[in-house]
Amino acid sequence: MRVDLFDFHLPPENIALRPVSPRHAAKMLLVPAAGDFGHHQVIDLPKLLKAGDCLIFNDTRVIPAQLTGRRGDAVIGATLHKRIDLRRWQAFIRNAKRLKVGDQIDFGQDVRAAAEQRHADGSFTLYFEGDDPVELLLARAGTMPLPPYIAGKRPVDERDLSDYQTMFAQKDGAVAAPTAALHFTPDLTEALDVAGIKTATLTLHVGAGTFLPVKAQDTDDHRMHSEWGSIDAATAGRLNQVRASGGRLIAVGTTSLRLIESAAKDDGTIEPFEGDTDIFITPGYRFKAAGGLMTNFHLPKSTLFMLVSAMMGRERMQAAYAEAIAQNYRFYSYGDSSLLLP
């Protein structure tokens, strides 16, 4: 499909630079398969789902994966994308023309990395030198990797250390937050439990590729970057039991949805999964396991807007986004939410 079919105009003032407080006070647009849209707050979620439904969260934890250093007199920026091994990361490089294989980048705070390999997409494999764990090096020299549409308008600060982390975050490795879950609070999860809504967690370490624009003119020509994910056997069994009992699997965020669809067989059965996925969901895709999606509002012509269009229909989502803009919903990572129920 043509990428420009997924374009829309978003006024800059609709881009959220900070989350609301409390988090569950964010607005939420209910998008059913047909009929009127519903205007709610995230705290209303227990009333919008059914007992026996299951919300699926991503328990990845965002690491301080944004680095700025020097190679000689050149300033080099690095956004870590995907862990290769204990000391190596694939990274997207700013000012990459000034970096070649074999160069050393000094990131300050006694943190240095060697450019070991250049990949076909222009990214590099960085080897972090020394004996300290890379996580400790990043804690010293790295900053939180806020999306460009936020970082381009204000600097990263101490508030982002907590604001850009979900309450479910446990496993280090993400370069971007699974932002749909930023809206959840202990009060909300307690209300969900009382309402009989089940929960489950999986892990998908979100990579920096989620920030990259789609440069192709046709979706067939776009290549997704792979990300590592895991669903253990116990979780897969619980999710299958929910479906067998007539409950819906509601993914909280596109990362959770992409992973359960990667792990699902054609009949919808979810199998344990551990490894990379580069699944690219566009209109025409047949969903195998997911029965709904809670997600924030995404960029024009992005792979994520293509994904929600695949679930609800492109014209339906264009109308939903037009409604959200008209009602002053806040967009992107720190913005408001939507609940898609096909």
TrEMBL record:
It is an enzyme of class 2 (transferase). The keyword S-adenosyl-L-methionine applies. It comes from the Bacteria. It holds the Pfam family Queuosine_synth. Keywords: Cytoplasm, Glycosyltransferase, Queuosine biosynthesis, S-adenosyl-L-methionine, Transferase. SUPFAM superfamilies: QueA-like (SSF111337). It catalyses: 7-aminomethyl-7-carbaguanosine(34) in tRNA + S-adenosyl-L-methionine = epoxyqueuosine(34) in tRNA + adenine + L-methionine + 2 H(+). Pathway: tRNA modification; tRNA-queuosine biosynthesis. Its EC number is 2.4.99.17. It is found in: Cytoplasm. InterPro entries: QueA, QueA_dom1, QueA_dom2, QueA_sf. One of its GO terms (molecular function) is S-adenosylmethionine:tRNA ribosyltransferase-isomerase activity. NCBIfam families: PRK00147.1, queA. HAMAP family: QueA (MF_00113). PANTHER family: S-ADENOSYLMETHIONINE:TRNA RIBOSYLTRANSFERASE-ISOMERASE. Belongs to the QueA family. Monomer. Transfers and isomerizes the ribose moiety from AdoMet to the 7-aminomethyl group of 7-deazaguanine (preQ1-tRNA) to give epoxyqueuosine (oQ-tRNA). This is S-adenosylmethionine:tRNA ribosyltransferase-isomerase. It comes from Sphingorhabdus arenilitoris.
